[in-house]
Write a structure and sequence with these properties.
285 residues, mainly alpha, Arc Repressor Mutant, subunit A, Four Helix Bundle (Hemerythrin (Met), subunit A), 2 domains, two-stranded antiparallel ribbon, 2 strands, globular, GntR_C
């Protein structure tokens, strides 16, 4: 920088980072739906969101108005897409005060083609987002280790206990979110919090919830162990250890989504595919 130049402010840096994300990461993964059949694209994205565990069996999908806002389409388009999910048995429509579209099954005969159409064109970009997210979550954990308060640690312990006691996939997902929200809060920086949530939304195809896959006891045990290790590093104030653990922990999401795409392609996880297509990796992504 020239000695007379004015250093960038925090707001300047935030705008610069936002511009990079918008220019590089947004078009394929999060751009407004713009295809010949908008309802087909919306239905595909919703089926994929259910397949990767954004929304779990028994859970209510967001309402028409919220989905229309998330996907930047009309409510009529959302209504047509939900009708398609109902027709193939992925959701059921309930009436009354608690009515809405409830997930019945995470995977049906129609799911594989929807997952392929949704994930394959986006995959190179998603790989970049997975990598960026691991780096950012490493920063989050490092910062939390340096700044955490007794109240922050108490919130993490409550979330850890909830995760250890979870009896359903939905309870696991809620406790997982509570733990990572507590780590985020410990940074004391709303902009770091916003960046983390933005990346979560991008890797989740625009839905602001952690992809959670299907019930997998091995993945649950791995996550439980890693949560405890991250907490211990943050409690000890070991920033480098906390960051390294978090970077590895967040490969769980990319590994799960890679496995779902391989399932949609009819391949055994880890089996090599044509150039440009994903294959599972052993260990961190």
């Amino acid at each position: 920088m020239h000695p007379d130049a004015t250093p960038p402010t925090t707001d300047d840096l935030s705008r610069m980072l936002g511009q990079v994300l918008d220019d590089v990461a947004q078009p394929a993964a999060l751009g407004p739906v713009r295809v010949q059949s908008v309802a087909t694209e919306v239905a595909d994205r919703l089926m994929t969101a259910v397949a990767i565990g954004d929304y779990l069996p028994g859970e209510r999908l967001p309402g028409e108005r919220e989905l229309a806002t998330i996907l930047d389409v009309s409510r009529a388009t959302v209504r047509e897409a939900i009708g398609r999910l109902q027709a193939v048995g992925i959701v059921e429509i309930k009436r009354g005060r608690t009515g809405g579209a409830y997930v019945r099954a995470s995977w049906t005969e129609a799911t594989a083609s929807a997952v392929r159409r949704t994930l394959l064109p986006r995959w190179p970009e998603l790989e970049q987002l997975f990598d960026l997210r691991c780096l950012v979550e490493g920063l989050v954990a490092r910062t939390a280790a340096l700044r955490r308060t007794d109240e922050d640690l108490a919130a993490m312990r409550v979330a850890l206990a909830g995760y250890a006691a979870a009896g359903t996939l939905g309870q696991e997902q809620a406790a997982d979110a509570a733990f990572h929200n507590a780590v985020l809060a410990a940074t004391g920086n709303p902009k770091i919090n916003a960046l983390s949530r933005d990346l979560l939304t991008r890797v989740s195809l625009g839905f602001p919830v952690e992809p959670y896959g299907e019930d997998d006891p091995d993945a649950y045990q791995r996550a439980l162990i890693e949560h405890r290790k991250i907490y211990e590093a943050i409690e000890a104030g070991d920033a480098e250890q906390a960051g390294s653990l978090a970077e590895e922990h967040f490969t769980l999401t990319s590994d799960m989504m890679r496995t779902m795409l391989e399932r949609a392609q009819g391949r055994v996880p880890g089996q090599a595919g044509p150039a440009g297509e994903p294959a599972s990796r052993v260990g961190p992504a």
